[in-house]
């Protein structure tokens, strides 16, 4: 078995999970400001690949996103690995980016067990999972609100329903897997952005031993 591309003693990876609309992207942006993370959204990377001239995966990605299903892991993992390598090469200034070290928030990934196992084994062992939890009611209202301006092909009632199903059936087992390993930090994301941010900040500071 080959070893991971990145050594987890130098490269810190935090997976950021939670239902669609839980506030992962918003809170990641805040944590970038606080701690100098590189924020990688799997969904954003997939959308960029979907629209990239000459991509052989464009149609496949579009269909999966609309149907709320999971793109085959090889595609997503390669996109993440490439983005991580590019960020490491960039040689960013700031905390956690000296002497071959780096820190990443991997947002909206892994959504399926096979991705989780493969990423940990071949790219980098994740240190923790930040799990933003809230009710389906809250998720739905946030997604419908976002849908008014997001232009996203999956922020409509029909796609949302399918995404909820995938989340419950396919992604919850991933969270349970890391929970059993004692690596999940759960944060109630029902309150305001500011309150959730405060809690996330405290949790991440503890994890990074600030
Ligand atoms: N997706 C995927 N694999 C991933 C992450 C996302 O296939 O690892 C696809 C999936 O179809 C998902 C869509 O991308 O429903 C949108 O993901 P995104 O993270 O942007 O949604 P969010 O959670 O932010 O609402
Ligand atoms: Mg998102």
UniProtKB/TrEMBL annotation:
Query: EC number(s)?
Result: 2.7.4.14
Q: What are the entry keywords?
A: ATP-binding, Cytoplasm, Kinase, Nucleotide-binding, Nucleus, Pyrimidine biosynthesis, Transferase
Q: Required cofactors, per record?
A: Mg(2+)
**GO: which molecular function terms?**
ATP binding; nucleobase-containing compound kinase activity; phosphotransferase activity, phosphate group as acceptor
Region called NMPbind, residue ranges = 41-71
Specify the enzyme's EC class, one word.
Answer: transferase
Record note on cofactor: Binds 1 Mg(2+) ion per monomer.
A Gene Ontology BP annotation from the UniProt entry? 'de novo' pyrimidine nucleobase biosynthetic process
Amino-acid positions noted as binding ATP in the UniProt annotation, renumbered to this chain: 21-26, 146, 191
- Localization in the cell: Cytoplasm; Nucleus
For region LID, the annotated ranges are 145-155
Protein residues bound to a ribonucleoside 5'-phosphate? 47, 69-71, 108-111, 115, 152, 163
Q: Does the keyword ATP-binding apply?
A: yes
Predominant localisation class: cytoplasm
Gene Ontology CC annotations of this record: cytoplasm; nucleus
What is the reaction catalyzed? UMP + ATP = UDP + ADP
Q: Which HAMAP family match?
A: Adenylate_kinase_Adk, Adenylate_kinase_UMP_CMP_kin
Cited function: Catalyzes the phosphorylation of pyrimidine nucleoside monophosphates at the expense of ATP. Plays an important role in de novo pyrimidine nucleotide biosynthesis. Has preference for UMP and dUMP as phosphate acceptors, but can also use CMP, dCMP and AMP.
* Annotated domain remarks: Consists of three domains, a large central CORE domain and two small peripheral domains, NMPbind and LID, which undergo movements during catalysis. The LID domain closes over the site of phosphoryl transfer upon ATP binding. Assembling and dissambling the active center during each catalytic cycle provides an effective means to prevent ATP hydrolysis.
Q: How does it assemble?
A: Monomer.
Give the family per the record.
Belongs to the adenylate kinase family. UMP-CMP kinase subfamily.
* Name of the protein this chain belongs to: Uridylate kinase
Species source reads Mycena chlorophos (Agaric fungus)
């Amino acid at each position: 078995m080959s070893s991971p591309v990145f050594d987890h003693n130098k490269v810190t990876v935090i997976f950021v999970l939670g239902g669609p609309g839980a506030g992962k992207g918003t809170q990641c942006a805040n944590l970038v400001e606080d701690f100098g993370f590189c924020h990688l959204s799997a969904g954003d990377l997939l959308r960029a690949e979907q629209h990239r001239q000459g991509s052989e995966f464009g149609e496949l990605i579009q269909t999966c996103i609309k149907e709320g299903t999971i793109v085959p892991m090889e595609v997503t993992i390669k996109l993440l690995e490439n983005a991580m390598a590019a960020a490491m090469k960039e040689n960013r200034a700031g905390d956690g980016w000296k002497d071959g070290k780096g820190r990443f928030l991997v947002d909206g990934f892994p959504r399926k067990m096979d991705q989780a196992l493969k990423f940990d084994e071949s790219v980098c062992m994740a240190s923790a999972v930040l799990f933003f939890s809230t009710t389906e009611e809250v998720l739905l209202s946030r997604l419908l609100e976002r849908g008014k301006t997001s232009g996203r092909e999956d922020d409509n009632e029909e796609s949302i329903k399918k995404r909820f199903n995938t989340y419950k059936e396919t992604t919850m087992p991933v969270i349970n897997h890391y929970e059993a390993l004692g690596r999940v930090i759960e944060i109630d994301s029902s309150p305001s952005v500011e309150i959730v941010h405060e809690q996330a900040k405290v949790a991440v500071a503890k994890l990074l031993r600030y």
